[in-house]
Specification:
By secondary structure, this protein is an alpha/beta fold. It folds into two domains: about 140 residues, HAD superfamily/HAD-like (Rossmann fold, 3-Layer(aba) Sandwich); about 60 residues, Orthogonal Bundle (DNA polymerase, domain 1). Helices cover about 45% and strands about 15% of the residues. The strands form two sheets. Strands 5-4-1-6-7-8 form a six-stranded parallel β-sheet, with helices on both faces. A two-stranded antiparallel sheet has the order 2-3. Helix 8 links the parallel strand 6 and strand 7. Helix 1 crosses helix 4 and helix 3 packs across helix 4. The N and C termini lie close together (about 5 Å).
């Protein structure tokens, strides 16, 4: 594989607790019906506004209010060390770059939060391209982000691998006609990842695939 496209949340970094607690705090402050941790986890991987619309069955205006409050609370709730890389991520990314792979991120996050987290975790340096749902007409599971990266790299689908932890990531890869690899340590249910081309339990195992 020449080009490796990574999801961020649940694939590169463990952001689950911060996301879930901030979602629940947002819902509580707006006086909306409470949601469980599992219900919130199932939304990870979608753009924020879509997540709240789906989770709460609210219209776009109410979902936008949730999105804006969430973003403010996320900044307040973020503390150094609260988000960490999964085991072996940094070393494996470095080894992939040394092998000549082109690395990219395709995330449902906006650029503000994603770029900040990549810098905080000191891994921005590994990625040639960072693409978010803000850059494309359609978010995951549509293929738009992968297609944009293909345009940037001028690579062919046969040489590209998408790595993610949810069905949104896997289906994005399938829609783009590229190979997919699901990680089992993230936010997705294992049963929803079974259709990926590869399934791994540790990030470093990627080196055996590429």
């Amino acid at each position: 594989m020449n080009t490796i496209v990574f999801d961020f949340d649940g694939t590169l970094a463990d952001t689950r607790n911060l996301i879930v607690s901030t979602m629940q705090q947002t819902i509580a402050q707006l006086g909306l019906p409470a949601k469980t941790e599992l219900e919130c986890i199932k939304m990870i991987g979608l753009p924020l506004r879509q997540s709240f619309a789906q989770l709460l069955s609210v219209d776009d205006e109410q979902a936008a209010l949730c999105e804006n409050l969430y973003k403010n609370l996320f900044v307040k709730n973020y503390k150094p060390g609260i988000v960490v890389l999964f085991p072996d991520v940094e070393d494996t990314l470095a080894e992939m770059r040394a092998m000549g792979c082109v690395l990219a991120v395709a995330s449902s996050r906006g650029h503000d939060s994603l770029d900040t987290l990549l810098d905080m975790l000191n891994i921005r340096r590994f990625f040639s391209y960072v693409v978010t749902s803000e850059d494309v007409p359609n978010a995951k599971p549509a293929p738009d982000m992968v297609n944009l990266i293909l345009d940037y790299t001028e690579d062919i689908p046969e040489n590209v691998l998408v790595v993610g932890d949810t069905a949104y990531d896997v289906n994005m890869g399938f829609s783009a006609g590229v190979k997919t690899c699901a990680v089992t340590y993230g936010n997705g249910a294992i049963g929803e990842l079974a259709h990926a081309d590869f399934i791994i339990h540790n990030f470093k195992t990627l080196l055996d695939i590429i």
